Amino acid sequence: MSVNEINDKIREAAKVAAQYHTDNVGAPAATRLEWPVAVSVNKGLEGAIACETKIGYVDGVNGRLVYRGHDSFELSEHSNFEETSYLLLYGKMPNAAEYKAFDEKLKGYRKLPHEIYDALKLGAVKTAHPMTSLYITTGMLGALDQKSEDVSWQNQEEIAIRLISRISTLVGEIARLRKGLEPVEPDLSLGHAANLVYMMTGSKPDEATTKLMDIALILHADHGMNASTFTAMVANSSLSDMYSSVVAGITSLKGSLHGGANEKVLYDLEEIGTPDKAEEWFKKAREEKRKVMGFGHRVYKAYDPRARIFGPLVEFMARRNPEINNLYSIAKKLDAIICEQFGKEKKIFPNVDFYSGLIYRGMGIETAMFTPIFAASRISGWTARILEYLKENRLFRPRAVYTGETKAEYIPIDKR
Ligand code: SDX
Predict the structure, then answer these.
(1) Cα 214 to Cα 235: distance, rounded to the nearest angstrom
(2) Is residue 54, in this structure, part of any structural domain at all?
(3) Of all protein residues, whose CA lies closest to atom 49 belonging to ligand 1?
(4) What confidence tens digit (pLDDT) does each residue in 91-114 have?
């Protein structure tokens, strides 16, 4: 077949397509396909509904967060990450036997395949942003799993549990390698939260620190159709595999308008330096039309309930740590200024990312690791929602309103 013959075929196909177009225009209105479609466009898909869910509810008006009917305040007080993950995945609180079996499964998966350590030690993986190291190594977990391409619900469920366990181990190892330390084996005698702190800091946490990490993991676990959850679900809706979909979620969480804000908040607080500079710093940020990290939310038009919990917990840490005490005083000042100036008028309040980093800093964790901790928690929400949607899967495929040229003519390059 020559190039001319190929081009003849294209011209013939164009003629057939043009005939179809004429038929469509002449068809009765009820069957005619119109373009552009009559729609209203909300930037950032504001107000769009992606699906139905029974997993979690964000009440943005009253500042309430619910997982499977359970209020996040109640879960923070009584639950732990393992139990909350079970609740998100299976829709009910586990009984003692179910909890034990789930916990054993998570622990059974905690250690990483040895090949992962080769990847973690690669120069670029070690020095990249830890969220980049996390999605590279999460992808590699998929590459090492011979059953990763089996997209049956049962297999995806098993991978979900494996990833809930192993993302934390990856985060722990990435934290160590960034500090130039040797990897450490996860400690199977510790609960999920305590093991994460142990791996990241090198010391076994006391009861209060374990509880604080559990609260952080519970409160970040799920949050409606946030950008990373939606990204992960869109990826999985094409029947891609669970590892790939979670990688997609991590890439979306990384950005500073989403999970990446917790890291940026700390840099801002450090830049402000002392509480008396907060007002001036905020004035300058407004003049430069900068978004203040850790404030504002698409859904909450009230104070984020998670920030309501984290704020007082940081105060508790501040009492025993002078560095946190100073950063917390700056944060409180900024909180008061922004709520006063933006709260009533624009409904801008602190969000989850404003105080969470101070909790991690109080544990001695490096600032760049804050967003990976978010991922180690949100993995439960990502996988629970992927599995829920997979039961009655349909490809996500919205449209864009085309506002460009429709009749442009192809002119050969030497005639342009
Ligand atoms: C998370 O969706 C989730 O649930 C996410 C999350 C989860 O758990 O998954 O809760 C986690 O991602 C928390 C958000 C972390 N990001 C930040 O803290 C970054 C700073 N915040 C923003 O940029 C902003 O508030 C967003 C991104 C969180 C929400 O953006 P929207 O809904 O698109 O709102 P917008 O940017 O269009 O702002 C609306 C107005 C604008 O003013 P006007 O042009 O109408 O006058 O509010 C202003 C904005 O300028 N505004 C801010 C602001 N947030 C909104 N102004 C200054 N500083 C801010 N932080």
Answers:
(1) 29
(2) yes
(3) 291
(4) 999 999 999 999 999 999 999 999
